[in-house]
């Protein structure tokens, strides 16, 4: 029998038992769906992390109270019980940094804020920053028009603000220069002195949905108990490690630590953030792979079961075919193709649904969509292997039936 005829016969046999074939296919689809969905979402997050690191800059690091990632457990209390980094400690730190003080920025932030201008309101999702005059330089922001915060704004605790592009578009949809306009943020009045250039998203969050006010004003009106973050930019990649060492020493002095005391602050660098994310990603990937592998093996057992049932039901048909000269390899090939069809059909369904689900997660968190080509190829290969592996025994059993005994079957 030609291969084309064998394929047609295999497809016809599966169509004759649509419900059984469909249920078996779904078992394979579930396993592939789980791995594709997880890997698609993780790849989208991975791309977002890679692009989001540009918000710090290649020569920049942060000092803060908490680590970049904080999970549950007993170790969590160690970070929560640390004393906040105060504004006074930040000022002393800048002084101790000497010639690098102009590249050292202080900031504190709170999300979930609402801004109002005239009869227009933003969504209550604005990030409000209290910062010093070095915020824009240290965090990679440029001024589109107007001006940045200056030393006098901080020293005199002025009620001025620099806004992001998302805030400007929400409050001033008709365009124009909002400089000099007065807005309210959580009931407090601020005069707009400048607008940042569009920066885009990082880690799935817009960096343009922000309002920056003097840190002294923030501590007076918003939250006096906030723990500040300190951003430091090294002069060059060659001086990066040396700048970190200098910053650690300066921060220990600013915090009043003795030589026996451990650091009660965290250093956030691009490398540490990547390493932390990679570890988290690897754990999730291994867990998803184990679950998916178990589901695929279970689906393979289901394929073997349905094929054995099919051999039993079609014993007389196999006997007739063998009696008219059908070779063993033709029958073996037909049953293997049936098992392969079931496996690949489930794999394709799982790939389509998994890619859609993974990208749905990505879109929900404002992450770029991903087509996981590598994992698609791996899934197709695994499904093919499972289909052949679990279909070989039923196919071999069908090919080796005695035609005389098979014809006696009813």
UniProtKB/TrEMBL annotation:
Transmembrane regions: 21-42, 286-311, 331-353, 373-393
Q: Name one GO cellular component term.
A: plasma membrane
GO MF term (any one): transmembrane transporter activity
Asked if the record carries the keyword Membrane, the reply is yes
Q: For this UniProt record, give its keywords in alphabetical order, as a comma-separated list.
A: Cell membrane, Membrane, Transmembrane, Transmembrane helix
Ranges for domain MacB-like periplasmic core come to 21-244
Where does this protein chiefly localize?
Answer: membrane
The topology of this chain with respect to the membrane is:
Multi-pass membrane protein
List localization entries: Cell membrane
Please state every residue range assigned to the domain named ABC3 transporter permease C-terminal: 289-403
Record bears the keyword Disulfide bond: no
Question: According to its UniProt record, which protein family does this protein belong to?
Answer: Belongs to the ABC-4 integral membrane protein family.
What name appears for this protein in its UniProt entry? FtsX-like permease family protein
Provide the species name.
Chlorobium phaeobacteroides (strain BS1)
């Amino acid at each position: 029998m030609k291969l084309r005829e064998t394929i047609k016969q295999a497809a016809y046999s599966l169509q004759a038992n649509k419900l059984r074939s469909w249920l078996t296919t779904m078992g394979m689809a579930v396993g592939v769906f789980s791995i594709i969905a997880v890997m698609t979402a993780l790849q989208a997050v991975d791309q977002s992390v890679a692009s989001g690191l540009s918000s710090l800059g290649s020569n920049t690091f942060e000092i803060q109270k908490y680590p970049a990632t904080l999970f549950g457990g007993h170790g969590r209390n160690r970070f929560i019980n640390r004393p906040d980094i105060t504004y006074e400690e930040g000022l002393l730190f800048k002084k101790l940094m000497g010639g690098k003080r102009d590249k050292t920025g202080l900031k504190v932030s709170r999300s979930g804020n609402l801004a109002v201008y005239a009869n227009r309101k933003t969504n209550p999702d604005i990030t409000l920053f209290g910062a010093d005059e070095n915020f824009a330089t240290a965090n990679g922001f440029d001024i589109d028009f107007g001006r940045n915060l200056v030393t006098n704004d901080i020293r005199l605790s002025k009620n001025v603000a620099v806004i992001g592009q998302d805030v400007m578009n929400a409050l001033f949809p008709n365009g124009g220069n909002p400089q000099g306009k007065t807005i309210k943020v959580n009931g407090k009045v601020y005069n707009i002195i400048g607008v940042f250039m569009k920066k885009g998203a990082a880690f799935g969050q817009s960096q343009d949905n922000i309002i920056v006010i003097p840190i002294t004003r923030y501590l007076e009106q918003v939250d006096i108990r906030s723990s500040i973050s300190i951003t430091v930019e090294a002069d060059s990649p060659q001086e990066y490690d040396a700048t970190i060492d200098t910053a650690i020493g300066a921060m220990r002095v600013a915090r009043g630590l003795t030589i026996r005391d451990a650091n009660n602050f965290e250093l956030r660098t691009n490398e540490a953030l990547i390493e932390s994310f990679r570890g988290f990603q690897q754990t999730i990937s291994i867990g998803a792979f184990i679950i998916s592998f178990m589901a695929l093996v279970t689906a393979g057992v289901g394929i073997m079961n349905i094929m054995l049932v099919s051999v039993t039901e079609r014993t007389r048909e196999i006997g007739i075919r063998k009696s008219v000269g059908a070779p063993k390899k033709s029958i073996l090939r037909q049953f293997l193709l049936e098992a392969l069809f079931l496996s690949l059909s489930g794999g394709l369904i799982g790939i389509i649904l998994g890619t859609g689900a993974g990208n749905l997660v990505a879109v929900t968190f404002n992450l770029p969509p991903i087509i996981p080509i590598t994992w698609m190829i791996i899934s197709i290969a695994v499904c093919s292997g499972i289909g052949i592996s679990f279909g070989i025994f039923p196919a071999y059993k069908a090919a080796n039936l005695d035609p005389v005994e098979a014809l006696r079957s009813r």
